[in-house]
Amino acid sequence: MKILCCIKQVPEKDARIRVASDGAWIVEEGISWAISECDRYAVEAALRLKESIGGEVCVLSVGDDKASKGIKEALAMGCDRAIHVQTDAVARADAVTIAKVIARAAKDEQFEAVFCGVQSDDLGYNAVAPAVAELLGARHMQIVLSVEPVGESALKVSHELDNNLIETAEISLPAVLGVQTGIYDVRYASLKGIMSAGSKPQTRYSLEDLGLSEAELAPKVTIESLAVPERTHQAEMIEGDPATMAHTLVEKLKTQAKVL
Amino acid sequence: MAKKILVVAEHRDGALKGITKEALTAALQVADDAAEVSAVILGQGVDALADELASWAPGGVVLFEGSEVEQYTPEVYVKVLGDFIKESGAELVLTGNSYQAIDYFPRLAAVLDAPLVPDCTAIESDGDKLVFVRKVMNGKLDARCTVNGEGPTLVSLQQGAFPPSGAPGGGAVEKKAVDAGGIEPRKILSIEPGETGEVDLSEAEIIVAGGRGVGDEEKFKLVFDLAEALGGAVGASRPPCDSGWVESFRQIGSSGQVVAPKLYIALGISGAIQHLVGMRGSQCIVAVNRDPNAPIFQEATYGLVGDLAEIVPALIEAVKESQEA
Ligand SMILES: Cc1cc2nc3c(=O)[nH]c(=O)nc-3n(C[C@H](O)[C@H](O)[C@H](O)COP(=O)(O)OP(=O)(O)OC[C@H]3O[C@@H](n4cnc5c(N)ncnc54)[C@H](O)[C@@H]3O)c2cc1C
Ligand SMILES: Nc1ncnc2c1ncn2[C@@H]1O[C@H](COP(=O)(O)O)[C@@H](O)[C@H]1O
Q1: Where are the domains of chain A?
Q2: What is the Å distance from ligand 2's center to A226 Cα?
Q3: Is the C-beta atom of A119 inside 6 A of ligand 1?
Q4: In B, which residues are within 8 Å of A260 by CB distance?
Q5: Residue nearest to atom 4 of ligand 2 (CA)
Q6: Is the dihedral of CA B36, B68, A99, A107 positive or negative?
Q7: Which residues of chain A lie closer than 8 angstroms to B287, CB-CB?
Q8: Mind listing the pLDDT tens digit for each residue in A16-40?
Q9: Would the CB of B272 count as within 6 Å of ligand 1?
Q10: Largest CA distance in chain A
Q11: Which residues lie below 8 Å from residue B202, measured CB to CB, with a gap of 6+?
């Protein structure tokens, strides 16, 4: 099966995020970047599908140089080749615009299964995967918990619905899946994987190569400003060294909140 | 502000979802004139829900009825809603950001080539423009966004962000037949409740919950120790369950258990919306986090900023001392 896996390089979970001087983006220098959490599970899911029925996994990332590191890591984990759309132009774009770039880069290759994460750790749209599916004319499932091949032309996929319900469906290919965290143990890159990653084929495109017009790339949604959320309600903050804080808290829980 | 506003309703088990009423409330707030707020609902045998909806939507309700929409599928929803939105001339399309919306709404935006603002927490006005607020960077920052170009804007609203007001009354219901245009929806094999596990946390009076900030499986013992000292149960955010530090039935949140104890202690939990919806109803919330800007402090009654590896042992001590006293 021809499998694609979309990954995004994002600030690490514990990175100290600061707003840049333009007020509309973050300071990118001086923080560490990593593959977005769900996307690691997406890579794992893609590799497992390949291992069960054969084929290849191509990893795709849209982003500037930082994305190269993520691509290399995915290749080291076992992906066979990569597509890197090298651009910074859609870093703050809306979900449909990002999906257009991904779909255009993938279109001619006719991937049968496309794995994405359910939600990115930076823009967090929770939306790119279904939008890519629409643009590729593919089926999709979002918040995916398990994937099994059904012959060569369909997948049996479970996903989350509201109220803790789990829906299982059979979907024909091509299909795009937004993978949830925690569904597998994600493998580490082996030493052999790391050694061979550098020699695996990588295709690099610019937005011009993809033939996307300016009109297609014009942002539909603009981030005007970023700010630390305003405090609408603020907790009563308890100060002091750990022992003092602990005593004060226990006292308050007993006498003020009356919950102990 | 906004002229024609359409709310896409959602229902399950014969009732409108709470978030649909929140979306209607948001629509009524941003509308220039309540008469411009209308709603659309898809289903079979949901006349009563359409009537209820009409009391919220002075601009009227369209009910798409047919066996094809008896059960939700994204394929048919996207086709029916895509055609209807184009025809209706709606400028703003609002819905609650449920898991169902997460599944089909982005696809609808792609079909319409429309701006999409997912999981919006507030709508402000800036002159004649609407400003949509949503969280980015894992909830650490609020982004204020504006929309460019013509046509409908699709916005899904975060659960709890627009507390429902009263229904203004006054709309009419129009029925339309579903034209799914020969689309074959995905083949649903089953819909079943997820794993619930051995411990029903909803009964616990005290819950001590650990998050990613606890660090690892070994350090998670601290969470158990504090729970034991307090005679409470142990819960967790998603990452500790994902990583196998604790059993997955301990997960609290939109994909886990919903709890409302007297006392909820959140250790190393940032306060993502999917976690908050599972514990917001707690009577007293204590948050321990080393990041003073962590969103959890907005929900908490008491906040302690610092390293939980130092604070939790001190808390266990203090609890034991107070019990002995
Ligand atoms: C469809 C979907 C469903 C989801 N369902 C759920 C759900 O049901 N429940 C749920 O919880 N999540 C759910 N999530 C995940 C959710 O979005 C968040 O990713 C998750 O809640 C974050 O968990 P956390 O707060 O433990 O981790 P993080 O967000 O990484 O926060 C860790 C916190 O620990 C603090 N910290 C780190 N070290 C220390 C220390 N030494 N001392 C004190 N503080 C420290 C940090 O400052 C940070 O605030 C879902 C996501 C999706 C997309
Ligand atoms: N720039 C990008 N490059 C590659 N994949 C992406 C990019 N942005 C988003 N994705 C994919 O879409 C998923 C969902 O992202 P989002 O809709 O922003 O929450 C991510 O987990 C990735 O799999």
Answers
A1: 2-205, 235-260
A2: 20
A3: yes
A4: 230, 263, 319, 322
A5: A61
A6: negative
A7: 235
A8: 999 999 999 999 999 999 999 999 9
A9: yes
A10: 68
A11: B257, B258, B259, B260
pLDDT tens digits along A192-201:
999 999 999 9
Indicate the helix (H) or strand (E) that contains A136: helix A128-136
Q: How far is the CA of A145 from the centre of ligand 1 (A)?
A: 19
Integer Cα distance of A24 and A50 in angstroms: 41
B210 lines ligand 1 (CB under 6 A): no
Q: CATH homologous superfamily of domain A2-205?
A: HUPs (3.40.50.620)
Separation CA A98–CA A125 (nearest Å): 11
The ipTM value here is 0.96
pTM to 2 decimal places = 0.97
Distance from CA of B58 to the nearest CA of A (A): 28
Q: Is A114 in the pocket of ligand 2 (CB under 6 A)?
A: no
Which of A233, A245, A260 shows the shortest C-beta gap to B298?
A233
- pLDDT tens, residue by residue, B215-274: 999 999 999 999 999 999 999 999 999 999 999 999 999 999 999 999 999 999 999 999
- The model's pLDDT over A113-146, given as tens digits with 9 standing for 90+, comes to 999 999 999 999 999 999 999 999 999 999 999 9
pLDDT at residue number B180: 86
Note the pLDDT of residue B3: 86
Angle between helices A66-77 and A37-53 (to 10 degrees): 30
The domains located in chain B, with CATH, are 4-177 (3.40.50.620), 206-324 (3.40.50.1220)
